[in-house]
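Q: Could you write out the predicted structure for this multi-component system? I'm mainly interested in how the pieces pack against one another.
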Amino acid sequence: MAPRALMKDGRKALPSAMDLATSIPAWLDLPEPRGFRPKRKLRTVWISDIHLGTKGCNAALLLDFLASIECETLYLVGDIVDGWRLSRGWYWPDEHNEVVRRVLKMAHRGTRVVLIAGNHDEMLRPYAGMSFGGVELALDAIHVTADGRQLLVTHGDGFDGVVLYARWLAFLGDKAYEVLLKTNRWVNIVRRHFRLPYWSLSAYMKKRVKNAVQFICDFEEAVAHAARDMGVDGVVCGHIHCAEIRQIGDVTYYNDGDWVESCTALVEDAQGQISIIDWPAEIAAAQAASGSIAAATDESRKNVGRKKEDA
Ligand SMILES: [Mn+2]
C-alpha cells in the first residue's frame, strides 16, 4: 500500500517502479464495479425449453447467461412458458418475471426476438404471425446464417409420432413418414378435444430410459429428414432437452438443449459459425481461471518480496 502512504504525506513524488509493481496486484484484488461485465457479441442466440412456471426451470442461470450476451436475433424455440403446468396450478416466482422482463428489454433495445411455440406453450399457436411487446410469435421460422445457409427453426414436437414408429419407417418409406407427421397433429387435436395433455416424446422417453439413446437418435434423424425435404441446409430445434450439433447426410442438425437440466444455448458468431454454450461449464471454467489469477498474483507478491530481500 505504498502509493497510499505517499498520498497521506501530501508529497508529490511519483511512486517508484517497485511501488507500482506491488500496487498492481492490490488493484487486481478490487471487486469489479457492480454490473460490469463485457458482453459477448453474437449474431444469433437460440434457447428453448425454459419451462417458466415450473419448479424445474433454472431461471437464475438463464438470467446470468442473458446478462452476458448481446445479439442481433434471439430465437425462443418453444416450451418457454409451461402452459400445461400452469393450468394445473399457478407457480410464478419473481425470477420467472425477471426472465420475461429481460427478454422484453432485449427486444426494446433492438434485438429481434422470435418466439416459436412448442407443445407446452401451444396455447400461443393461434397468435402466430402477431407481435407482442416487440416479440414476434411464429410456428416456425427460416434463419439465414451469416455465411448464407438456410436453417429451419422449429420446436420439434411435430416429430414425436414419427419417432415412435421410426423403426418401421425404413420399411414403409417416405409416404408413411408424411402420414405419421399428419397423424401426430391429429392425435393431439383429438387429445385436446378430450382435455388430455399433449402427448410428448420426452415424457415418454423418461419412462423408457433404456431406449432413450435410440429415441434421441431417431428424433434427430426424423427432424433432419424433414429439413432435407424442405430443401434447407440445416434445422435448429429443441424439445428433447439434449443439445447437439451433428451432420446427418447433407443436413446439419442443431439442438439448443434446455434450461431445466443442461442449461445450454446455441449461438452464431459474425462469421456464421454456430456452437453450443454449456453455461454451467462456462461458469466453472471462469471460476477456475479467476482462481488461477489469484494464485498467480500471490506468486508475484512472493517474488516481489524475495526481490526486496535480495536487495
Ligand atoms: Mn417440447
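A: Regarding packing and overall arrangement: The first strand starts at residue 40 and ends at 47.
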